[in-house]
Amino acid sequence: MKNIACNLIYNNGDESIYVGFKKRCDIQNIIYNVELDSGRWCSQPECSCRKFYDKGFKGKVEDYPCNESSLFENWQWNPGNEFKTGEPFRIKFTGAGKVAILTTRFANCTEDERKIVGFLKIKALVDNQHQIIGLKKQSLRLTIDEAQELNFWNYHRNKKSSTPMWRQGRFRYLEDIQVAAILHDLKDVVQNETTQSMINGLLENDFTEYSTIRPTVIGSLGEESVKKILLKRKYGKGGESKEHKQLKEYIAKNPDKIGLNKNEVNALVEHKYISGDLVDILFAPTKGVGNTVVEIELDNVEPGIHQAIKYRALRCSQLGLTLTDKNVKATVVAWQFKQSEKNLCDKYGIDYFEIKL
Q1: Domains and CATH numbers, the chain
Q2: CA-to-CA distance for 12 and 89, rounded, in angstroms?
Q3: What is the DSSP string of 107-159?
Q4: How does DSSP classify residue 218?
Q5: Rounded to a whole number, what is the distance in angstroms from the first to the last CA of the chain?
Q6: What is the pLDDT of residue 238?
Q7: Average pLDDT over residues 17-46
Q8: Buried b (16+ CB within 10 A) or exposed e, 211-229
Q9: What pLDDT, in 10s, does the model give residues 124-147?
Q10: What is the C-alpha to C-alpha distance for residues 355 and 346, in angstroms, rounded to an integer?
Q11: Which residue has the higher pLDDT, 93 or 193?
């Protein structure tokens, strides 16, 4: 048996923090779906949304007019029927224990921007291989932000063409190695710890061969892509400020400004911990011992002091040292420090330097 990828018509019902696919779309998305493609259910005369559209959005419309609208309500999905014959599509080569990866094209997106929005761990395939029943506790609905991170075509290629195109059909078959790569990347993308544990359990129990090592497929996330995601979370949607970046890069190139010998340390900018935290700069020794974590701030320094305390402890843990090991130091560099901030640094043994470019 194989896993599958599902081609979902974009549904923004109940969309806020999480992706939609729960109840009918809002009027704007109904218009988009009805007018976009005459070959989809939304445009068919029998569809409740199409009837609502034809009546100028007056009267009643079903709460769950399509498969997509009840996806995360019932944790079920089916690929619908062939329009010409009315015959249901059959998913013949999957079943209980496999995974259905849920993909869609958000409004006004092209096919090469198809995103992964969640998955169903298949509990059963019923209705003569037509309907997938998911195990809710082992299935996933991503947040809007998380769903922007994984492109489906990074994990799958058409047999006859490398150009991303779905063409016909509502589902594709996937190999275990492809789904395992997706699950590993989802572990880095999702922020909920319970969800991370659930995904880890799926890998350990159902994809044992790939549970500890991320398998390499066409375009799965590498370490740099993961770091980009973490940087976006660290600095927010507005990104890192120019002043913060300039000061960080300056200190990384000039460790002598904070009392370190540049010939004895390597600067690791945005060093990643297993927790997903990124320290602005880690100065690691070229030989011997002595590590320094550096947090860069501008004029709101107290949060950075607490971050420095955390990053120092994380570096100790990363090296297998006690959390108070004197060979790991913490430093905060900022434009200026209030006296209360200097006192806080002194209390916790953190070095501090006022530097403004």
Answers
A1: 3-24+63-173 (no CATH), 242-354 (3.40.1350.10)
A2: 24
A3: TT--GGG-EEEEEEEEEEEETTTTEEEE-GGG-EE-BHHHHTS-BGGGT---S
A4: T
A5: 61
A6: 67
A7: 90
A8: beebbebeebbeeebbbeb
A9: 999 999 999 999 999 999 999 899
A10: 18
A11: 93
pTM for the predicted model, two decimal places: 0.73
The candidate with the shortest Cα–Cα distance to 234, out of 223, 222, 245, is 245
* Contacts made by residues 251-258, CB under 8 angstroms, sequence distance 24+: 251/281, 251/294, 251/296, 251/333, 251/355, 252/281, 255/283, 257/353, 257/355, 258/292, 258/294, 258/331, 258/333, 258/351, 258/353
Confidence of residue 222 (pLDDT cuts 50, 70, 90): low
Alpha helices in the chain (DSSP H): 27-36, 48-54, 144-147, 176-189, 193-206, 223-235, 242-253, 302-319, 339-347
Q: Which two tokens stand for residue 241?
A: 């400020």
Residue 241 DSSP symbol:
-
What is the sign, positive or negative, of the torsion defined by CA atoms of 188, 190, 191, 193? negative
CB-count exposure of residue 181 (10 Å: 0-12, 13-18, 19+): buried
**DSSP of 161-195, one letter per residue?**
-SS----S-SEEEE-HHHHHHHHHHHHHH---HHH
- Answer for the pair 355, 244: CB distance below 8 angstroms, yes or no: no
Give the DSSP letter of residue 267.
Answer: E
As a whole number of angstroms, the distance between CA 199 and CA 180 comes to 10
Measured in degrees and rounded to the nearest 5, phi and psi for residue 284 equal -100, 145
- Whether the predicted pLDDT of 287 surpasses 90: no
Burial of 118 (0-12, 13-18, 19+ CB in 10 A): buried
Q: Which amino acid is at 201?
A: G
- List, for residues 318-354, the tens digit of each pLDDT value: 999 999 999 999 999 999 999 999 999 999 999 999 9
Sign of the torsion angle spanned by Cα atoms 144, 56, 63, 69: negative
